[in-house]
Specification:
mainly alpha; Serine Threonine Protein Phosphatase 5, Tetratricopeptide repeat; two-stranded antiparallel sheet; 21 helices; 6 strands; SusD/RagB family nutrient-binding outer membrane lipoprotein; lipoprotein
Length: about 525
């Protein structure tokens, strides 16, 4: 009996051992639910990142992007227009939320021969997001930023901005070489899987970043710009508006201002700065960028530019609400100041004319690239092409782009105005055409670039920080010591949850204030 029991115990033990080996051999495969994958495919991650960051970019363009560059002015809740800025979570947290998905794409495709196009696209998007982020705050987590997934590092160090730029420029060059002729990118809501257009964006964005550092590291900027412009077969760039990095919205995902409240839309009005500059040049883009005043009773369009009226930037709440363009107190308030253009109009503001799709979110367009090349040629940073040709191309491209978008929205009268505008005469004006001293030419290039950068994130602010052109005059009630801010403050949550690394960044970069210049800002 004892032997039978022992044999049974031995047999049972062996059975359990074999069973445990069999059960653990394919444990990971057996315990994966095919209906709920542990990681998302690249084609599923890509559209979400593009949509989220383009939406953030558009909203930032509406806020600081409009007011600090003085395209728009605040009629109500004017603290932002007066530089009374608090530490802000945007774009910080949206950027890092998106970077987790981008790093997942990179991790899953970097060593996959069939995934090189996704890897290249991910490097381009990564560079765009980090350029947006670092140009807002300066030093930010970069080298250690996404190691929470792999190394459990939830308190990443901040990387100096010079090193971030070095990394972005290297990634963009790498991306251009990775992208092949095979259009096998799914989930691409920016370029529909067109690999060549992604390469053009990569090299055009690289030129933007090289120009950004051209005052602080001219040797790197010059070498990089010439590498691209001297070999466009290897490094293709935007060749027209059709190549631009613009996100097309749809009725399910409308342009960022379409679903906003009418009160929120009407808080931002045409800036007197934009009004004055465009009227001085008889620039008909004013009929796109703004609407006639309600008092004019002209609806969304008037052929008379006098019906488009702006207000000064930087007034306090009481002065803004009571501002009168004529000085007559009985002609004050919103009825006498222009709304921003019908392209951006919210549905609640004008259900008949608002379009969810006519306005695209411009990440970078052909006009901007041409102005970059015009400046580079005028400063002898590149040796290819002529300054005036690049410059004229930029202006023409801007007018053409807005004619296309107005046509897409079905606003016939505005479209006819742009179509019939004497663009050749505009280009020949003394205040527009080049031919003066290099400084005078650069001022004209900067002005036209500023006009063309309307609603392009806060690119106009970044360009002003680099060049000081065109001039920004703080408003009468400006806070911050009457000084235009040159950076955002880090979010309070970052200070409290990553304090040692935050303090190290502040010690290296300078005080966490609005007036601490970024590494490339040496103007």
């Amino acid at each position: 009996m004892k032997n039978i029991h022992s044999r049974f115990t031995l047999f049972f033990g062996l059975f359990i051992l074999l069973l445990s080996v069999a059960c653990t051999k394919d444990f990971e495969e057996i315990n994966q639910n095919p209906n709920f994958p542990e990681q998302a495919a690249s084609e599923l991650l890509l559209p979400g990142v593009l949509r989220k960051m383009a939406y953030n970019w558009g909203n930032q363009g509406w806020e600081e992007g409009f007011t600090v560059a003085q395209y728009g002015a605040r009629l109500q809740f004017t603290s932002g227009d007066r530089y009374n800025w608090s530490p802000t979570n945007n774009p910080y947290f949206d950027a890092y939320d998106s970077m987790r998905d981008i790093e997942n794409i990179i991790r899953d495709t970097k060593d996959n021969p069939d995934g090189q196009n996704y890897y290249g696209v991910a490097l381009i998007i990564k560079s765009w997001i980090y350029s947006y982020l670092t140009d807002a705050y300066g030093d930010v987590p970069y080298l250690d930023a996404t190691k929470g997934l792999s190394d459990d590092n939830i308190t990443p160090s901040f990387t100096p901005q010079a090193e971030i730029y070095e990394g972005m420029l290297a990634d963009l060059k790498t991306a251009n070489g990775l992208l092949t002729g095979a259009n096998n990118i799914s989930g691409d809501i920016l370029y529909g899987g067109d690999v060549l257009k992604w390469r053009k964006f990569s090299n055009s964005l690289r030129l933007r970043l090289l120009m950004r550092i051209s005052e602080v590291d001219q040797a790197t900027a010059t070498a990089g710009m010439n590498e691209i412009t001297n070999d466009l077969a290897t490094y293709p760039i935007f060749e027209g508006n059709a190549d631009a990095a613009v996100l097309q919205w749809n009725s399910d995902n409308p342009q960022p201002k379409y679903d906003t409240r009418s009160g929120s839309f009407d808080e931002v009005r045409l800036s007197q700065t934009l009004e004055t500059r465009l009227k001085e040049l008889n620039d008909r883009r004013l009929v796109v960028y703004a609407q006639p005043t309600s008092n004019s009773e002209k609806g969304i369009y008037s052929e008379n530019l006098d019906d488009y009226v702006g207000m000064p930037n930087g007034l306090d709440d009481a002065k803004a609400l009571s501002y009168s363009p004529t000085g007559n107190p009985e002609e004050s308030g919103s009825n006498y100041i222009s709304r921003l253009g019908v392209l951006l109009t919210c549905r609640a503001c004008d259900v008949e004319n608002a379009s969810p799709t006519a306005s695209q979110t411009i990440i970078m367009d052909y006009a901007e690239l041409q102005f970059i090349l015009a400046e580079a040629r005028e400063r002898n940073l590149i040796a290819v092409g002529e300054t005036a040709a690049y410059y004229d191309n930029g202006i023409r491209a801007s007018f053409s782009y807005y004619l296309d978008r107005i046509t897409a929205g079905g606003w016939t009268e505005i479209g006819n105005d742009l179509q019939n505008f004497d663009l050749e005469g505009y280009l020949e004006q003394a205040d527009v055409s080049l031919g003066g001293s290099p400084d005078e030419n650069l001022q004209k290039i900067a002005l036209q670039k500023w006009i063309g950068l309307f609603y392009t994130g806060f690119e106009a602010w970044s360009d002003w920080r680099r060049t000081g052109m065109p001039e920004i005059v703080p408003g009468a009630d400006a806070a911050n010591g009457g000084v235009v801010p040159v950076r955002f403050q880090y979010p309070n949550e970052v200070k409290s949850t990553n304090q040692p690394n935050y303090e190290a960044a502040v010690s290296r970069q300078g005080p966490d204030g609005l007036n601490t210049k970024l590494w490339w800002d040496v103007d």
